[in-house]
Amino acid sequence: MQNNESVRLDVYAIVTNRIIELLEAGTIPWRKPWTEAGIPQNLITKRKYRGINLLLLNALDYKQNFFLTWRQLKTIGASVKKGEKGSLVVFSKKVERQVEKNGETSIETKSLLRYFKVFNIAQCNDIPSAFIPERYTNLKESITACEMVLENMQDCPLIKYLEQQAYYIPKEDFINMPEME
Fold it and tell me: 95: burial class by Cβ within 10 Å (0-12, 13-18, 19+)?
């Protein structure tokens, strides 16, 4: 059994190596924080992935960003397609425990860092249709402060949705934005 320090270092090393692999393959995970597939989330719990998990899963470029753990797949009677490999996600939380030193009891807080594999629905067989959304539609949450800036801006540039990149072309005075989905 490994001690907590070596396990923690292994998780950090695994994440670092994955980012290096992506960079060497020409994918810069933080360059495009959105995706046409929506925010990566767990298919069963609907919990959206955050932090480094968001970057790592978005870089996979699946059509739908729904993921399941091995245990969840087994629970719903589904399986992983032959030859498919899971993707890394990291879980972190604070754990408190009582420690007794020199006759005094105190609370010690440690960080628990774990990783596990998830599978995209495209990598799976036999997922019951009740779990798969008919068509993924991202909630078009309005960002009131941003909308107010646009509404109150004098000579607001035209906003176009030509491609999945965000940029401004001064010469033509237009902003390109990715589609909301």
Answer: exposed
Among the listed residues 141, 132, 137, 116, the one whose alpha carbon sits nearest the alpha carbon of residue 53 = 116
Residue 136: its pLDDT value, please? 46
How confident is the model over 90-101, as pLDDT tens digits? 988 889 988 888
3-state secondary structure of 80: strand
**Residue 171: phi, psi to the nearest 5?**
-60, -40
Q: Is the model's pLDDT at 123 over the cut of 90? A: yes
Q: Minimal CA–CA distance to 49: which of 112, 35, 131?
A: 35
Q: Which two tokens stand for residue 87?
A: 């993707």
Phi and psi angles of residue 29, each rounded to the nearest 5 degrees, phi first: -60, -30
Cα distance from N-terminal residue to C-terminal residue, the chain: 45
